[in-house]
Amino acid sequence: MKKILLILSSLLISAPYITNAKNSIETQSKDESSETVNDIPDYYFKSAGGEQPGDPINNPSDLFYENNQTDFELVPNFEWFFKLKKEESFGYSEARYREKGKLKKGLCEYNSLAMILTYLELFVTSEVINDDNFRKYFDFGIKEEGKIQAPIHRYSFKEYETMDSSLASKLWNLNNFKLDLLVGGSVQNTFNKWIQIQSREANIANEYSASFWHTSSPEDNLLKHRVPVMMSWTKHKHNIVIFGYNKSTDSYVVHYGWPDSQPIRIIKKSLLWSTFSGGFWNAFYPNPNKPKQALKKRFKYQGELYSWTELERMGKTANDFANMEFLDNYK
Question: Which of 61, 112, 130, 331 pairs with 166 at a CA distance of 20 to 30 A?
């Protein structure tokens, strides 16, 4: 009962409103004056005093590659997530401001949503990122002989002074700069606003769980629609992307959402999700009653652009990606 009351009380707390999203962010509250933080690289402090649940996977391909027998049900092209290590590989971004003297980050939901949008556009149905926005937010990184160049993000924490131009920051902007989201409906609204600026109606169905009280499970849509699912939980105030589920051990394989040498983790469902966990999940997948859009030429191989459909016909798999990063001297 005490836990329930704590969750209920947390829903009544109003977040500070935010102004001026360019270069620096100001926060204001009724009882404190505005405080501005300029270029503080808070990424380097994100793990201080923190705890990362689950078991990091040093070589995920050895454990999950399709030729091996595992009990995990994995989304198609799951190997793509293995390459999302550098900031630019999935557009990792942070919020730059302080609240009551504490450094705030809080863009994990938007980093996860950017990851989901990219996965859908590349591998499922090319209708969630139009050509203009794809050119705006994505580029290609290093070239490796015989490897596929998957698109990476132009703007991320890697280039700190341009982080406000990232896809995750744009999604944050569309949601009125809200942080530490408490309900899945807020993520859904952000997705819908993003789709509205793509100049076409996307045939994407979306579902989300209620927060505080829920009997659903994040893995249901992963198993049914074979898409990754983003999930938020309150204990660690974080959002992750689930792309595999092991029924026998009731465990998830997730991308933890931080740039790291070991972003892939196996986490017990019981650590993340229960009826009163206070978290929520969001799932986005093609409307089963409408045709999917053909995949566009979003990859580069041997200097030419290809769609994922074309690359698969050539016998390529998501295990053939080059490292997804810029050269250190990239400009």
Answer: 61
